[in-house]
Amino acid sequence: MAAPNVRGFFDPVTATWTYVVWSDTDSLKRCAVIDSVLDYDMPSSRTSTVSADAIINFVNQKQLQVEWILETHIHADHVTAARYLKGKLGGKIAISKHILGIITTWVPIFQTGDDTPADGSDFDYLFDNDEEFTIGDLKARIIHTPGHTPADTTYIIEETAFVGDTIFLPDVGSGRCDFPGGSAEDSYDSSRKLFALPDHYRIYVGHDYPPAGTRGPQCMATVNEQKFKNDRLHIGIDKNTFVSRRKADDTGKAVPALLLPSIQANMRTGDFGTAVNGTQYVKLPVNKL
User: Residue limits of the Metallo-beta-lactamase domain (predicted)?
Assistant: First the structure.
């Protein structure tokens, strides 16, 4: 069995983990980049590529060849750098086919149907549920893990799992479920899919929000650690208890600061849409959410 190498990059502004995954035994040194970040300053509406350039520098230093640029879901808290990375490094941008439901939900809100393809064709590839694929000589598959959003998915690469916001580290718990189509019930069921993996599998999270004064950002816990230590989802928690607490905590929760620019750009793989007189724009629907 090929063993995946995993290098994590933490963006402290959005608390996002980006991962580069590759195998030392693959002669072509092919890799995947998972959940990248395009830096975006909301007050000035300006982008920069500091975070993405760190990925590019690492890939080039390691002489890796990007085969896949993967998204676990349409992020609401940061803009993806997928399109920028593809322009610099190549590779295929891919996501679950469930993005089509996200586009159906959000494009009417933003009125961006003219430059957001309804068939998801801004992405190079849409995965089916449980589809198997490869990253060099690494075996990978995708499973549907909804709850945070209806389209959340997990990439299982050999004995590692990249879960996005499906679950967080044990002392943090799990992602909110109050976005359109989100479901605390589905979130609980998705955690049980992860807990069905072998205990030694490593779960890499999409974000980390360390409890104040306890530790610095971390990115991984084993399945066994999640099963017995996750504050919200450990195996001693029944579904009704989890759902009640999740819904109570999500009630009245503030909208993520970057939700509006992030979702409309991420449905286009991180592009801000058709330019008018050389300028791209973000639409901010008023009194709609």
Answer: 15-207
At residue 286, the 3 state secondary structure works out as coil
Side-chain-facing half-sphere of 39: CA atoms under 13 Å: 13
Residue 104 lies in a domain: yes
**CA atoms of 160 and 176, how far apart (whole Å):** 23
262 within some domain: no
> Is residue 236 situated within a structural domain?
yes
Overall domain count for the chain: 1
204 in Cβ contact with 161 (< 8 Å): yes
Coil vs helix vs strand at 168: coil
Q: pTM for the whole thing?
A: 0.96
Q: Which residues contact 245 (CB under 8 A, 6 or more apart)?
A: 232
Q: Can you give the CATH number for the domain in which 249 is found?
A: 3.60.15.10
The three-state (H, E, C) secondary structure of 21-67, written as one string: EEECCCCCCEEEEECCCEEEECCCCEEECHHHHHHHHHHHHCCCEEE
Query: What is the residue range of 97's domain?
Result: 5-254
Q: Give the CA-trace dihedral at 212, 232, 33, 30, to 10 degrees.
A: 120
- Sequence-distant (6+) residues with CB within 8 A of 178 are 250, 251, 253
CA 270 to chain centre: 13
Which amino acid does the sequence have at 243?
Answer: V
